[in-house]
């Protein structure tokens, strides 16, 4: 099992979600974050003083997947998030020790498997 963290441009979120859903990767957490990587620092003047805006708005995706989904998840993100410009983001793939579904107590791969839709 792996935890895939992707930092992407906000304007690429819909494309990335579409690509992930098409790859049958549906479980994810999305956070709005700010960060700085290789982008140029924007200098602006505010009340006569130079201001440096070092952080850029980004989207962070957290996706826990079983081993067979690691490569397809990474490929879906790469293919849909890339613009070719500095600031496209990063993907981090880390080992995931344990996953537990709170409602059922299922662990690991069973906890990562999507549950069937239920009608209430």
The helicity comes to 10-25%
What letter string, H or E per element, gives the SSE order? EHEEEEHEH
Question: What is the radius of gyration?
Answer: 18 Å
Low-confidence stretches: none
Number of DSSP-assigned strands: 6
> What class would the helix/strand composition place it in?
alpha+beta
Which shape, going by the Cα principal axes? elongated
Roughly what is the average pLDDT, rounded to an integer? 89
Total helical segments: 3
Give the termini separation: 32 Å
**How is the biggest beta sheet arranged?**
4 strands, antiparallel
Binned strand content:
25-35%
What order do the strands of the largest sheet run in, or round the barrel if closed? 2-5-1-6
List keywords for this structure.
four-stranded antiparallel β-sheet, 120 residues, 22% helix, 6 strands, alpha+beta, single chain, two-stranded antiparallel ribbon
Structure notes:
This protein is of the alpha+beta class and about 120 residues long. Helices cover about 20% and strands about 35% of the residues. It has three helices and six strands. The strands form two sheets. Strands 2-5-1-6 form a four-stranded antiparallel sheet, covered by helices on one side. A two-stranded antiparallel ribbon has the order 3-4. A hairpin with a 2-residue loop joins strand 3 (about 40-45) and strand 4.
């Amino acid at each position: 099992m792996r935890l895939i963290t992707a930092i992407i441009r906000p304007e690429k979120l819909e494309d990335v979600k579409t690509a992930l859903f098409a790859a049958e990767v549906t479980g994810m957490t999305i956070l709005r974050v700010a960060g700085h990587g290789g982008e140029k620092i924007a200098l602006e003047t505010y009340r006569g003083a130079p201001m440096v805006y070092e952080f850029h708005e980004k989207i962070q995706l957290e996706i826990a997947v079983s081993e067979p989904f690691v490569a397809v998840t990474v490929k879906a993100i790469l293919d849909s998030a890339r613009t070719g410009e500095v600031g496209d983001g990063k993907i981090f793939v880390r080992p995931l020790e344990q996953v537990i579904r709170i409602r059922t107590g299922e662990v690991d791969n069973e906890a990562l498997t999507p549950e069937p839709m239920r009608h209430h």
